Backbone:
């Protein structure tokens, strides 16, 4: 992907400085301040599911630069829970919507059956630019005694239903879990958890089994798209930040470089098609409620460009 974009040589020089085998102190402090964290985990078929975990500030700690400890586990009904075993690969994303900060890492799970949490032994750690992140402020954090919690039972489907389409159509943010062909077998291999942002409607539902979304100009690392070139299995996570509902999708992604695909979204460099194999909708899953503040500056420009083109 970097060769296609003409950025391979430049990124080989930059990559050594950006990609670390440990977390710098500012990343360790960043994760420790989070109430929410996003994960990529493999199910028994080797498919990467995207999911989230939440807790009070302090439920994430870093006792060592190469260790991230998380005092929570995916729910037993979460399809990502199948990936929770000692030595299994994991991808991690921490994001602060109010400041548009995000940091990512991947590595190996350290877990004992019966434990109430787990640790991640870091293999790769790197920061990310704030591009395409919508600004949101935390409005409320629900407690265990709140009547709107716990979450509803997950509703499973093999295709997209009306409730799924409604959530997707209004989404300005989603998360994508991807994998290399052999995660954990080499430092260059692993799971990835990434963020995608756009104006509402940027994810287009083509049918009950396919959706498409744009790839805008980014940092040229191509973590996600590079993975999809080698292994199309991936998972998406949509979050309704006002109700706490989540939609997890599993399927296969393909990178579309043709000019016709780029024209569907002003400013896009290429598109990605996602073929749905399964969906899990969970109402009131997230305890956190966020108030929208503003779109990312890059998206404000895209909105103006779209109006001009029209």
Residues:
């Amino acid at each position: 992907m970097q060769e296609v974009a003409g950025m391979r040589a430049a990124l080989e020089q930059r990559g050594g400085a950006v990609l670390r085998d440990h977390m710098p102190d500012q990343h360790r402090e960043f994760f420790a301040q989070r109430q929410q964290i996003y994960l990529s985990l493999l199910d028994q078929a080797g498919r990467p599911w995207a999911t989230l975990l939440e807790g009070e500030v302090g439920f994430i700690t870093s006792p060592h630069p190469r260790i991230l400890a998380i005092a929570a586990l995916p729910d037993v009904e979460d399809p990502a829970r199948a990936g929770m075993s000692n030595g299994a690969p994991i991808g991690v994303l921490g994001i602060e919507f109010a400041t548009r900060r995000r940091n990512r890492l991947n590595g190996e799970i350290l877990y004992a059956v019966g434990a109430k949490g787990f640790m991640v032994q870091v293999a790769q750690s790197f920061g990310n630019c704030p591009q395409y992140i919508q600004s949101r402020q935390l409005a409320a954090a629900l407690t265990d005694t709140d009547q709107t919690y716990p979450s509803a039972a997950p509703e499973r489907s093999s295709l997209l239903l009306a409730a799924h389409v409604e959530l997707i159509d209004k989404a300005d943010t989603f998360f994508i879990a991807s994998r290399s062909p052999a995660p954990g077998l080499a430092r260059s291999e692993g799971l990835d958890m990434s963020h995608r942002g756009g104006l509402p409607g940027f994810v287009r539902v083509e049918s009950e089994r396919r959706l498409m979304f744009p790839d805008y100009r980014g940092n040229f690392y191509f973590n996600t798209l590079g993975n999809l070139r080698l292994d199309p299995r991936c998972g998406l996570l949509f979050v309704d930040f006002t109700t706490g509902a989540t939609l997890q999708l599993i399927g296969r992604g393909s990178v579309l470089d043709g000019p016709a695909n780029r024209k569907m979204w002003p400013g896009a460099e290429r598109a990605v098609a996602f073929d749905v194999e399964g969906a899990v909708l969970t109402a009131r899953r997230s305890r956190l409620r966020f108030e929208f503040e503003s779109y990312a500056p890059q998206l404000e420009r895209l909105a103006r460009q779209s109006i001009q083109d029209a």
